[in-house]
Amino acid sequence: MIETWNELHEGTGISATKEYGRRYINFTAQNTAHWKASTSSPPAMVWASLGPQVYESGLHPALNAGDGTWLTTRIAGHDAIYTDRFGVRPAITFTLP
Q: What pTM was estimated for this model as a whole?
C-alpha cells in the first residue's frame, strides 16, 4: 500500500532517504509486482462502517478535511459510502486502528 505519492508540499513524498536509501521504494515495487501477479479478482465493493457502531478493527473513515468528499447511503441494508463526483475531488480517506 502506498499511503502517499509525491505530495512534497506535505513533506510525505516517497523518495530515497538518508536513513533507508531505496529500501522502502524497492519493497513497495516488489510487493506491487507480487500483487499484480495475483490471480485473485478484486472485490466488487469494500464496506466500511459509517453507522453508529464503528468497527473496532479494519478501516475507519477519517475526517473529511477537503481532500475529497464522500456521501453515505444504504445498500442491501448495509451502510455504504460513495465519492461525491461533484465535490472537490473524488477521494475517500481512511485510518487504520
A: 0.34
